[in-house]
Each structure stands twice: as structure tokens, then as C-alpha cells.
Specification:
about 300 residues, two-stranded antiparallel ribbon, 7-stranded mixed sheet, 2 domains, Rossmann fold
Length: about 300
Amino acid sequence: MDFIEVRDVVFAAHGRADYRSGLDAIDAYAGAIPEEVSDLAYWRMCLLSRLGETEAACVEFARRLGEGYWWGEAILADADFDNVRNHTRWKQLVSISLSRAAEVSSDPRQPIDVRPTVAIADTLVLFHGAGSHAQFMIDRYRSVVEHGYRLLALHGTERMSSHRFSWSAVEAEKAALSQLREVGNPEQPILTGFSQGAGVAGHLAWEGKYQAGGVMLVAPSLGIRGVPISSRAIHTTPTYILAGTDDRAIEDIRRGAAALRASGVPVRLDERPNLGHDWPADFSETLLRAVDWIHAARP
């Protein structure tokens, strides 16, 4: 299995409370890069806590802190840690981790740029969700590179752990535009993202802050602004929205799609039964269909 497949197995096992199977999947995969090691360690601690193996969770936490990893307050507040939260050793480790978090400022990073070996058919600009990272998005979208698509993964600037980021509530779009300038402002790319990152991508396009050739949003969190209300504020960028019917935000997503349509934006809302706030199993195939739809919907 590759990292994305491991992630999907772990999340599915967690969802059905089969925590031991999730641990087995983690133990069978050796993280190749720091981002993977960080995620695997976090998932292992979550699953060990869920199993009530609090000593083992503390051992894993201490080991990874010793290797330079850390996690911030929002991540360590996860309900998965409820079983271990009052453990004396865990509290000590949390204090160390939070001290490291307090010492870290915003960490601007270069976008990750992956190009096909054939002629570039289009460019996809990727926006990760809160508590994620650019490398995860590259891994999730990598299958389209062989079809001629260039991938540009941007980084959120607020650090939630040593290798996890989120987008600033006030300066997300400014940070994204700055990173796009660094790579030469690709012409009319498709902006695509997950959850919080999807909201950032959508608003950049709809409000005309970046001339995008299309938008693909996965489980979008549209934020307190929703979508632009005034038709004068909306650029009619073809928008493909992928969301699960079990996503807690599905009604907001439906209202957002309806508002965009009412303003003249070409919209395709692809609802998946029994899917929560997550990626569908057939995302690679869906991505190609979405890109084809966006190309056909362009003026």
C-alpha cells in the first residue's frame, strides 16, 4: 500500500471502531518522509488511546518528541486522546509539545511543484485542509500527472504541528496569492482543495482575486462568508463540488451551490451517499471526470 491507501484503511478502521486493524496497517508501512512519519505517529497515538493502551501511547509520544516532532493544542484536544489525557506522563509530554509550539512562528514554505513528463495539459493548484499539508495533497492528486497535469500544492501558514498546517482566517488568500507569484502565476489553472482549503480556493476564483479556469472543491468549508451574494462580485468560474451526504456541512454546501447557480456560475454538485467529511474511494477517477467537465463548461 502507498501512504494514501494506508490513510484510507486507518480512517475506515477508526470509523468502525476496529482500532487494532488500523494499528496493523500503520505498523506495516514505514513512513518515507517526515510528513508521513508525523501523521503515522499521530494516528498510532490516537488508536492506542482508543484501545486503552495508555502506556504505549505515551511511549510513542515521547519517542516522536525525541525525534523533533510536536503537536499543538488544537490537535492534542482530539477526543481520541480522552482515555490518556489524565495520565501523568501524557500531561508532561503535552507540556513539552505545547512549549515547542509556542516557540514556532509562521513558517512560509515553497509550493510543491510536480510536472508531468509529457506536455502540460493544465495546471491544478492544490489547497490542503486544516491540520494537513501540501505533500498530502500531492499524494492524493498524483494519479493525474501521467495524464499531463501539473500539480502545484500550496502551504497554509499557521502551524498546527511540526508538519501540519492550516490557513489563516484573515490572510489565507494573501498567502496563497504570494505563493502563486513565486511560481510565476500559472495562467487560468484549476483551483482545487479539501475542506478549509476548498473554501479558500473557491473564494479566490468567485471573487476574481485570481483568474482561474475552473474550481473543484472536495467537502468544502465555505466559512462565515458562504459564497458571494451580489452577482457583481461573482466570476462565473465553472465549479465542480464533491461532497458526501453524511457530511455535517452538506446543507450549507447545497445552499452554496444553489447560490452560485442563481448567480450564473456553472455548477456540478456531485453528492456521494454515505460519505462523510472525507474523500471518496474513487477520487482518482472522479478527478479526471471533474477536470473534463470543467474544460467543457469553460466559456
